Structures are given as C-alpha cells and as structure tokens.
Amino acid sequence: MIARLVISPDINQIKEEINKTLILHSLREASLRGVNVNHPDVLYFQAGAKLGIAEARKIKEHLSLKPYSAKGIVIILEDASVMTPEAQNALLKTLEELAKEAILILGASSDANLLPTILSRCQIIRPATTDLAGLTQPTYEVYIKDLEKLLNSTVEERFQYIEKLKNREEFLRALIYYFRDILLQKITNGDAAAQYNVTKKEIKEFLKELLQAEQWVKQNVNIRAILEYLMLRMSKAS
User: CA dist 93 to 87, 99, 115, 187, 200, Å?
Assistant: First the structure.
C-alpha cells in the first residue's frame, strides 16, 4: 500500500483522516476518539514527538514485524513535518517497499518541511475546510431519521429526497458519519449491535464509495449526480 500524507493546518482534520483509514481496515481499536496507541500492531507518534534517525529505525523495525491481530502493521505520524532531513532520507526505501497490508499515515500542517522525494512517494490528501471534521454532531443528528427512512425507500423515493435537498454536501458528510458509526458498532459489538442488516464487508465497500464521492465533490463533479449514484449503491436495511 502507498503511504498517505494528510496535509492540513487543523490537527483534528488529520486525526479524522487517520480514523477513516483505520476504520476501513477494520482495526478493532479505531473509534471516533482515536486509536489505541498501545496496540501491538500500532506504532503511533503523536504531534510533538521527536522524529529523528532513532525514530526512523523504530519505524523500519516495526514494519519488519508480523501482525499480531490486525491485518497489517500500522504506523502513524501525526506531525511528520518535524522529521529531520536525515530521518526522511532514511525512510525513502521504506516508503518505496511498503508491504501491501501495511498502513503508513503521515500528517503535516504543510509540505514545506518535507523533502520532494518523500512527497513523491505518498498519496497526498488535502481535506477541504468543509470536510467531515466540520460537521457537528447536532447537525449530523438532523439527518438520522431521514437516513433510516431512506434505507427502506425505493430508488424513486431516494431520488425525490435528493432533488429536494437544500445542502447536499452536508448530507454527503452526514452519510459518511452515519455509515462509519454503523461500522464501528459492528466491529466493536458484533453484527447484532447495529440495526442495519448488512455485513461489515458491504458497509466497508459502501464507505469506500462515500469517501471516493468526497473526492469527486472536490473535483467539481455534480453533487446531485453523485448522491443519486450513492442512492443506487446503498443497500436496503432488510
């Protein structure tokens, strides 16, 4: 897997992107509040941590281990911009040869302090200021009843709802929030914990489509067309 570099001046947005990735990879400790940094498969450097040659060695050593319970080894640097040039150079080969199941996420407030060779080896994500992190819990809850109703609606009814929506981007973020919550319930408490009667695999696949839809919005694809596509792809509750 290619390493991901999340660039945002807002540390909460960086953490949000970290959570999205971890949830989609079914890391059991992932949650809305963060990840268990003491998990044996996780090497987590929080913002403010020193990142020099010694830490670069730790990263390479951690990647050489076999996973204990997760599907792959996980390494997270909340603020990779503090890495020394020597540490960055030491990780170049590691970035090139990242194992398929490994997850390496770098956060940074900007790319100013990162070497071009590091940037060229990462998938760069720049969350918009109106991304999911900007959707408050009360705003999200406004859509819950509508979403529950839509799960058992016909395609025509779903399209009619989308046509009448006033804030379609906000609804897309609510969709991501909603299905992420359902997946978390299923991962943490088992399938019986969530009312939505589909498998974890199906929810993960739909979440991937939702996250792709976010990228389409940033590329100025018609938001109504995106939501209508998602309504076609969204499984019924039963």
Answer: 12, 12, 14, 34, 34
Q: What percent of the chain has pLDDT over 70?
A: 82
pTM: 0.57
CA distance 61 to 130: 38
Rounded Cα distance between 63 and 78, Å, is: 18
* List of residues 6+ apart from 232 with CB closer than 8 A: 155
* Residue 5 three-state SS: strand
* pLDDT, tens digit, 9 for 90 and up, residues 176-206: 888 877 776 766 566 554 566 777 778 888 8
- Phi/psi at 106 (nearest 5 deg)? -110, 140
How far apart (Å, rounded) are the C-alpha atoms in residues 17 and 127?
8
Number of alpha carbons in the 13 Å side-chain half-sphere of residue 220: 0
Tokens of 12: 């909460």
Select from 77, 14, 21, 75 the least CA-distant residue to 48.
77
Q: Quick one: 227 exposed, middle or buried, by C-beta within 10 A (0-12, 13-18, 19+)?
A: buried
Query: What DSSP designation does 34 have?
Result: B
Span 133-161, pLDDT tens digits: 455 554 667 788 898 899 889 999 999 99
